Amino acid sequence: MHGKHNTVYLLGSIHVLRPGDYPLDDVVQAAYTHAGALVMEIDLEDIDSTAVQSEMLASAMLPGGRTLADVMGATRYARARTLAQDVGVELSTFDRFAPWFAAEAISQLELTRLGFQAQAGVEMYFLERAKADGKHITGLETLHDQIALFEGLSLDAQAGYLLSSLEEAHDLPRDVDAMVGAWKRGDTGWFAKEMASEFADEPALATSLLAARNRRWLPQIEALLNDDRNYLVIVGTAHLVGRNSVIELLKQDGVDAVQR
Question: Nearest-CA neighbor of 3 among 242, 256, 216, 206?
Fold first, then answer.
């Protein structure tokens, strides 16, 4: 995207990658080189504080002695337990935790088992480079915002999120190379189709996790076009594809984003 005096690059990310998935495409590397500042969903340097970690743990715990089985109900819990066992996880490990936290933790466990590493993720890769190069780093939201997002979901919606995450984890060994391949070649259609399928039965969840956040980010992203400095904005690829994506919202505001 071009402002009057600058360029803003939008990069769809996979938050965790395998070391063997590098090097990144020359177009991506060039965007970083031309950018004077890095913008991510959150500034990853902020998540290491003890206070933030304590907040996350406190938010993840179910109140009043309730258990995951209590809030999910017998049928959904049984299905979730079977899916978790299929990927080598005992769901009872997370019985004191809210469904959203169990979903995130199990997804990370499965990705780690498949060789994906947080340190090899796109954001971490460019964060380390930006720190070494002295480039300005900021986030579109805070980790507190992300925690509040999950806390704001009803327990019923969280249960649906856990089930869909487990379905995804179950199929991930089969789909992982297709996902990374689609990302490397910039196949937005593949990701749009996957997102539509994943959230087909949970439209409210898609609104909370994607569409509503895209709308909150939009003024910040558009404001970057008024600067003199070039920016590289990195968000999850799901935020850049399909209906109500950042790209679609920008176009509705008359801002053209051309894929390279």
Answer: 256
